[in-house]
Specification:
The protein is an all-alpha fold and 192 residues long. The chain is 50% helix and 2% strand. Strand 1 and strand 2 form a beta hairpin.
Length: 192
């Protein structure tokens, strides 16, 4: 299962996009499309950090719970969360209740709030080459690239937590900094 798969609608998709209905929707409408805006990118940074060690579908299915718990991922609001908010979040069954990840998200909001130039500008400096060849098989899709390593290093330098090179590459894929849809995937070949 390393090339595209035809879905029930006859469309070819990256194989992970056919593994569950939630994945199909995410694959077809969001993954790999450019995301801009500090709050929108902050949400993705947080969700990728929470995903560490878990399957993405676990995060995807709790996304609305995360949005409710983290004030819609508005950087200015999350940056003001304090110890009482952490304790409330640890009781919230709509999210992943991991103290280190919760505290990192709040700390990351404070860093993002204070960034010169904003989070969008920082992240998009590391966009991949738009002309690189499209992968034909999932085995050709890397887990880490020099750009994701550099992005992770810069995020850490700024004070972000839970942002290693693999997490940074997943962020880059999800937010359209790279296009890792397989060459014959309908999302890549169609008008986006």
């Amino acid at each position: 299962m390393s090339g595209t798969l035809a879905g029930p609608d006859g469309l070819l998709r990256c194989p992970w996009g056919e593994s569950a209905d939630d994945y199909r929707e995410y694959h077809d409408t969001e993954w790999g499309r450019p995301v801009h805006g500090d709050d929108a990118l902050f949400e993705r940074v947080c969700l990728e950090a929470f995903q560490s060690g878990l399957s993405w579908i676990t995060i995807l299915r709790r996304r609305e719970g995360f949005r409710a718990a983290f004030a819609g991922f508005e950087i200015a609001k999350v940056a003001e969360f304090g110890p009482a908010d952490v304790e409330l979040l640890l009781q919230d069954t709509g999210i992943i209740r991991n103290r280190a990840k919760i505290e990192a998200s709040i700390a990351n909001a404070r860093v993002a709030r204070d960034l010169d130039g904003g989070l969008d500008a920082l992240i998009w400096r590391f966009a991949g080459d738009p002309d690189r060849p499209a992968p034909r098989m999932t085995a050709e899709v890397p887990a880490v690239t020099p750009e994701s390593t550099a992005l992770a290093k810069e995020l850490k330098k700024q004070g972000f937590r839970f942002v290693g090179p693999t997490t940074a590459y997943a962020l880059m894929q999800a937010c359209g900094l790279v296009d890792d849809h397989l060459a014959d995937c309908h999302v890549r070949t169609g008008a986006r």
